[in-house]
Design brief:
By secondary structure, the chain is an alpha+beta fold. It is built from eleven helices and 14 strands. The protein has helices at about 5-10, 15-30, 75-85, 130-160, 170-175, 185-195, 195-210, 260-265, 290-300, 310-325, 345-355, and strands at about 35-40, 45-50, 65-70, 95, 105-110, 115-120, 220, 230, 240, 250, 265-270, 280-285, 325-330, 335. This is Aminoglycoside phosphotransferase domain-containing protein.
Length: about 350
């Protein structure tokens, strides 16, 4: 992130440096015995503070993160509880703070500080092969936790809907969040507006596969499975946690599998045809095919019943790729289909992740 990100957050919220000082002071009043510092790396939709206990305190208990968020990007308490139930200690405990009135309608949330380093700060390609394998296997185990939380619902759904036409019905009834309630609408828009016919054809195929599914597990998906939100153990590279659950919602199991691609490759610059500017190129690292296979093998070892729904899971993986990279993030308004000029990174991801040249 650039050095002016802090100022960008406050200006985006229509607030000032004075408002920043008021907010930091309000948090410090809640933790008079602790050290409260600003994070060096700030997110786009939140302002984050680290709350550390006195040095005399034993252990790491009492270490927190406090985030200030506008209402439109607030963390939902029910989602926080569901994340903890589904993913256990890999999701932080969270609670809303009763601060003195904060400017701009900002809300403060306290989160348990999880151990680990953001994957975004790890040079995955430069690590040992053993670490890369462990990273992929532990990510598979993380994903598998969601299946366990969804199985009971799926069994009930099969019984209750066995004789009822179900084309897309299970989506409408159980995916009711910001993204979930418009999955088909968003996919159909992509099928008309993505920048080339190969991508549009892939969307049409995905829609057809999706509508053929009569029932499928729905589970809490993280919603922003990117390297800065995935924590790993600095020594072993095992996944140690997931942070920033603001975009999480109930979606088909596997919608978040675009996150696997970040473990297997990354962007490299390449010259455009006229050699006057560079365009992003996603390149998979050596050994990525083996690691991808190891992910799927581990996932099925953890939850053998996944084998029965592997085609549906592959479809949901593609749905997730299309929804997360087919739409641009325009100040939080995720309704514009990406194009080659303004969204080169997103279109590069679409082509690479969907294997559409």
């Amino acid at each position: 992130m650039g050095p002016n990100l802090r100022n960008s957050f406050w200006s985006r919220m229509g607030l000032t440096d004075t408002d920043h000082d008021v907010c930091v002071s309000a948090v410090r009043e809640l933790y008079p015995e602790c050290t409260v510092d600003e994070f060096a790396d700030q997110g786009y939709c939140s302002f984050t503070l680290s709350v550390s206990p006195p040095l005399s305190s034993s252990g790491s208990s009492g270490a927190y993160i406090v985030q200030l968020r506008p209402a439109q990007h607030a963390l939902d308490g029910d989602v926080a509880e569901a994340a903890r139930r589904t993913y256990g200690a890999l999701a932080p405990r969270m609670r809303r703070l009763e601060c003195s009135e904060l400017p701009g309608g900002l809300r403060a949330v306290e989160m348990e500080r999880l151990a680990g380093t953001p994957l975004a700060k790890v040079e995955v390609g430069g690590g040992s092969w053993e670490r890369q394998v462990r990273l992929v296997e532990s990510f598979a185990r993380l994903v598998a936790r969601g299946w366990s939380a969804a199985v009971a619902f799926t069994d009930t759904w099969r019984c209750s809907r066995a004789d009822t036409p179900t084309e897309g019905l299970w989506l409408e009834e159980h995916c009711t969040g910001k993204v979930g309630r418009v999955i088909l609408l968003k996919l159909r828009k992509l099928a008309m507006e993505l920048p080339d016919e190969a991508l549009r054809a892939r969307v049409r195929d995905t829609i057809a596969r999706l509508l053929d599914i009569e029932d499928y597990p729905v589970v809490l998906n993280h919603g922003d499975m990117i390297p800065s939100n995935i924590l790993v153990d600095e020594e072993t590279w095992a996944v140690s946690g997931l942070v920033d659950w603001a975009e999480a919602e109930m979606l088909p199991f596997g919608t978040c599998l675009y996150g696997l691609e970040y473990l297997l490759g990354g962007f490299e610059p390449m010259f455009s045809v006229d050699r006057t500017r560079t365009e992003p190129l996603w390149r998979y690292r050596q050994g990525s095919d083996f690691l991808r296979g190891r992910f799927w093998q581990t996932l099925k070892e953890e939850r053998p019943k996944i084998e029965e729904s592997i085609e549906e899971l592959q479809c949901m993986r593609d749905v997730g790729v299309l929804l997360w990279f087919g739409y641009a993030w325009d100040e939080g308004a995720i309704d514009r289909v990406v194009n080659e000029t303004d969204d080169a990174h997103e279109t590069a991801c679409l082509r690479a992740f969907l294997d559409v040249g």
